[in-house]
Structure prediction request, 616 residues.
Amino acid sequence: MIHLTHTIAGEVCDIFMPERRSELAGFDRFLAQGDKVLGLDSETSGLNIYSPGYEVRLVQIGNGREAWVLRVDLFADVIVRALRQPRMFVVHNAAFDLQVIDRHLGVTLEELGPRVFDTRIFAHLIDPRQEHEGGAGLSLKPLSAIHVDDSAPDTQAGLNAVFRTIRNPETGKLCTKDDGWRHIPIDHETYVRYAGLDVILVTRLFDELAVIIRDLGLNPLSKFEHHLQVLLAIMQRRGVLLDVPYIERLKAELEADVETFAKVAARYGVDNVNSTAQVSSALVAMGETLTETTDGGALKVDKEVLMPLADLDRDWERIEARKANPLADAVLRAKRAGKWRESYADAFLNLRDSSDRLHASIGGLQARTARMSISRPPLQQLPSGDWRVRRALVADPGQVIIAADYAQVEMRVLAGLCQDPTLVEAILSGTDLHDFTAARVFGEGFTKQERKVAKAIGFGKVYGGGATTVARQTGLQPEDVRPAMSAYDSTFPGIKRYGAKLQSRAQYGKREVVTLSGRHLPLDRDRLYAATNYVVQSTSRDLLAQAIVDIFDAGLGDHLLLPVHDELVAQAPAAEARDVIDEIGRLMASTFYTIPIASEAEVYGPSWGHGYGAPS
DNA sequence: ACTTTCACG
DNA sequence: ACGTACGTGAAAGTG
Prediction:
């Protein structure tokens, strides 16, 4: 038995790590003492739960002053028995550990998920901001420092330091935060100590945060978010099937593109297209004038700058406005192909499981506005103007990809919230909103270009933008956009008034806005104008979240694959695909303060790319 | 570690 | 008084 002690908030805590069965009596006594909620954590070989060779090494169970660090290689049965006891557990970022335990110990999400409190959810509901945004942060260390003991060690950072002293037997090199988890000796004192501390800290954090949540009246929202996390974890566990032979071909195609265009760039003295310094100086040497600068003061050579130099519009079509700069063109094409290969094709292949499924991590309660995000790989950010990357994700055999997305959900949510009579009437009348706006702003005989401006202003208003950004979006001058923006304000005065109301409340009360769901959204002192956007974005997210819960309640959860902000991607057997997606679309639809929130349902075909023009 | 860029809604 | 585009994840270069 390894026995360590550590003082947390002035109390001496015990960390026990049994090494043989005869040493488990103390653990049995610990379980029998009747704590209502126990801390739970696991230590694994890495982040990619579903990759081949992945293992869970330790499971820790404890309370506020005692931790039991259990080796999975010796005591898996004991751990499973403890987890199956009818009691609650508290985990920090439970979606991760629950999937580890489901996949590698066989205690399912369905069994354990409903019995878990997640301190990360509590923390997000209290203050969703990361540390660098001026918030409390969402990881265990900063939260424990605030609520439990500011001298408690940063167990993640502390272990990273230890990893750098340990040699990876496969490569012979010193470990990093990526491979240290796999190679650190399982009885290394720091590893055992920090493993134990994490459950002690999470239990104490729970005691503190649960009271705050209750006092803020957030118990119902917390319950909803906990339920949602389990459903999203079920989606992640299912994953999405990959078409591996297709990805290999795509990868080769993209590599060939990179090579071709890198060669062209090299002719102009740029031997690395990703070096902004090389690109900008070569362009200047060719006689181009670069005016925009980055925050760091360097000459800007991003897509927005390079496209006009290459005489290309946003759809990569020739504008015929000037002689295309061949270097700008080559850099754009080489970088795009390189990004698609690295971030998508390679990522798909590297992150898949042994059955060629991709289990991207779904963060259910992520952004400041609670928006969801998907990482490893970022499936919410695949190119949408070209089908080739999305074509890599396919439905299971015999099934097809289906999807339903909300139509103009943010404008509709804004209309419901601000109740501007003209905006409400426009939406209820069923005419195209941007047509309606263009007619009001420019007159009935508006042009196509004017409709585009009207649309850009609508977006600009939701985001809190001004004439400069709308001008940049539309390619017009700010002075040409300004009159249209005033006309927009006179047409929909309620939008501006609603924003002003939110801002003045935030200015004279607590610097935050509170949504209908009770979510507290803190505002930055010098960006109060973001209030409208936060409420709109957050409320739209809550609508999608509710839809996911409703779809599971209706028994259709097994079809869902991914949430994409205003859209749900799913799959169903070909014969019933139409019915399934229509029903999902109906479950997504709702009425929000008299405003219909409708969705459009579509059957894509064998791959996700088939919704974006992939040939059958 | 920070900056720059680029992919999405 | 005025105006401010919102929210993400990830790779590569740079120092």
User: Anything to note?
Assistant: The mean pLDDT of chain A is 95. The CA atoms of residues 145 and 152 of chain A lie 7 Å apart.
